[in-house]
Amino acid sequence: MKTRSLLLVVLLLLAAVPAAAQGGMTHTVAFDGFSFSLDSALAANINIVPYPGDPLDLEQPGGPEPAHTRFLLYNAFPAPENQWDALGGVRVYRTADIAAYEFSAAQLTQLQALLAQRPDLAPYMTTSAAGAGNTALPALPVVNAAQVIRAQARYVDLPGLSGIRYLATYGQAPMPITSGAILYQFEGLSADGQYYVSVQFTLQTPLFPAEIPADFDFEAFMAGFIDYLAGSVATLNAAAPGDFTPTLDQLDALVASIAFAG
Questions:
Q1: SS3 245
Q2: Cα(207)–Cα(209) distance, rounded to whole angstroms?
Q3: In whole angstroms, what is the distance from residue 13 CA to residue 27 CA?
Q4: What's the pLDDT tens digit per position in 55-97?
Q5: pTM for the complete prediction?
Q6: 235 FRET partner, CA 20 to 30 A, in 32, 96, 215, 261?
């Protein structure tokens, strides 16, 4: 009952400020020693969901999920049940809780190695004959789809948090990229290594079509698929923060505000 009351309070606080009319105001959300701030234009409502974790033997796409806390951001009711139905979200995992989950632990290990070694991220933004980059960048939760392209990949170092910020698309088959299929992602570790933070938001942009046209020629598309992917990466790399909704500046500010008590 205590958790349910807290969810209601957060919902009312955010809903009290109409997002469209009050853009530029800042809300701060804090729960269990973790906090972040967001521009009120990002979302009108937020749900906080402490997820207990799946049984290790659960068979589902992406594998079972470790325990974590979800912050789901959305505007219209009913409230979304998961991050993919929301505008975006923030997830906080204890790294100790990830260790026993094979697929999630692989993402943690890759992120730890990248942050320790700091390799050039440019190779992750190239394309190959297989239709994807050399190696996918880490991301939680694990999804049942290939990370097709990555763009604007960069390291982010904050006082209590370090990570990688990038744009990505996912797919289970070769298809054109549409507005709304591009994700903003930040995958980071707390300075003490005890927490993994994932921030993911769906982006809208006029740089790509809103939908696949009815007269789409799949054979012609596949003939130029690699060039198409390379061009899409170049388009995203050249894009300005304001070419997206939400803007990249708004999302970068959310990441920069993340803090852990103590």
A1: strand
A2: 7
A3: 9
A4: 999 999 889 999 999 999 999 888 877 777 788 999 999 999 9
A5: 0.89
A6: 215
* Confidence class for position 172, pLDDT limits 50, 70, 90: confident
- Strand, helix or coil at 12? helix
Task: Identify the CA nearest to 201 among candidates 109, 97, 93, 71.
Answer: 71
Summarised one tens digit per residue, pLDDT across range 201-243 is 999 999 999 999 888 999 999 999 999 999 999 999 999 999 9
Residue 240, Cα to own-chain centre: how many angstroms?
19
Coil, helix or strand at residue 136: coil
The torsion angles phi and psi of 228, rounded to 5 degrees, stand at: -60, -45
- DSSP symbol at 260: E
DSSP letters for 159-211: TTEEEEEEEEEEESS-----TTSEEEEEEEEETTS-EEEEEEEEEB-TTS-SS
Torsion-angle region of 217 (φ positive above 0: left; ψ -120 to 50: alpha; else: beta) = beta
